[in-house]
Amino acid sequence: MGIVTLKNVCKSYPAFDLKNVSFSLEKGKITGFIGRNGAGKTTTIKSMLGLVHTDSGEISYFGLPLNGHETEIKQRIGYSTGTVSWYPRKTIRGIIDTTKRFYQNWDETACRHYMEMFSLDERKKPMELSEGMKVKCNLMVALSHGADVLILDEPTSGLDPFSRDELLELFIKLKENGVTILFSTHITSDLERCADNIIYISGGEIKADCPKPDFMQNYGKPDETLEEIFLRLEKEARA
């Protein structure tokens, strides 16, 4: 059993259905989550965070069902999106002081470490930051309470190549320390560098869930990149 498990998760909207989504995340592995806009990635992630009430299915972390153990589980997971949209007029220090009250294992030393690594000024407000710095601010908060699982939704969007490289190195170090990472992104070259496994979702259904080398071999053609495989699969699905 994986450290995170989804089993037959379904969610229906008027114009979209998430259909029997099942997969597991392995401890200490980076899993790339790929799919075009509207494929179901965000609905899946929101379901994993309890932000969407699913119609059916099971979601568990560390052997515990999310339903009934959400507060306990969220002490051990971190979540980061591509932008910061909360408290735009509050200083970064104020955001930290508010957020850390929710985490028993908040690590101020780690917070300072990531703040320095990302060159963040705690006196600034999110509305004063570039898109790339907003991403770094969100990641700093997500990384500061010793999470065992990180759920990252477009974490490198808006970053310059140097900053992206810096973050990918950080993610690799975190997985070496046993952290489990779900990495949803459209920048598939990032996954080529750091992902161990690939989950591919299309039309609300999981189409592939396997180690990255198996995905490249089973779904790719000679010399195709991960991006080229993904684009071809999407074109073929709509042909």
What's the gist of this structure?
This protein has 239 residues and is α/β, with parallel strands linked by helices.
Q: Strand order across the biggest sheet?
A: 6-7-8-3-9-10
Please tally the β strands and state the result.
10
**Overall average residue pLDDT:** 92
Estimated radius of gyration = 18 Å
Number of helices: 9
CATH topology of the domain at 4-76 and 148-237: Rossmann fold
CATH structural architecture of the domain at 4-76 and 148-237: 3-Layer(aba) Sandwich
Query: Pairing-aware structural class of the strands and helices?
Result: alpha/beta
List the keywords.
239 residues; alpha/beta; Rossmann fold; six-stranded mixed beta sheet; four-stranded antiparallel beta sheet; 10 strands; globular
Characterization of the model:
- It is a single chain.
- The chain has a domain at 4-76 and 148-237: Rossmann fold (3-Layer(aba) Sandwich).
- The strands form two sheets. Strands 6-7-8-3-9-10 form a six-stranded mixed sheet, with helices on both faces. Strands 2-1-4-5 form a four-stranded antiparallel sheet, covered by helices on one side.
- Helix 6 links the parallel strand 7 (149-153) and strand 8 (180-184).
- By secondary structure, the protein is of the alpha/beta class.
- The chain starts with a strand and ends with a helix.
- It is built from nine helices and ten strands.
Task: Give the helix/strand layout.
Elements: E1 4-13, E2 16-25, E3 30-34, H1 41-48, E4 56-61, E5 64-65, H2 70-74, E6 77-81, H3 92-99, H4 108-117, H5 131-142, E7 149-153, H6 161-176, E8 180-184, H7 188-194, E9 197-202, E10 205-211, H8 212-219, H9 226-237
Parallel strand pairs: 3-8, 3-9, 6-7, 7-8
Antiparallel strand pairs: 1-2, 1-4, 4-5, 9-10
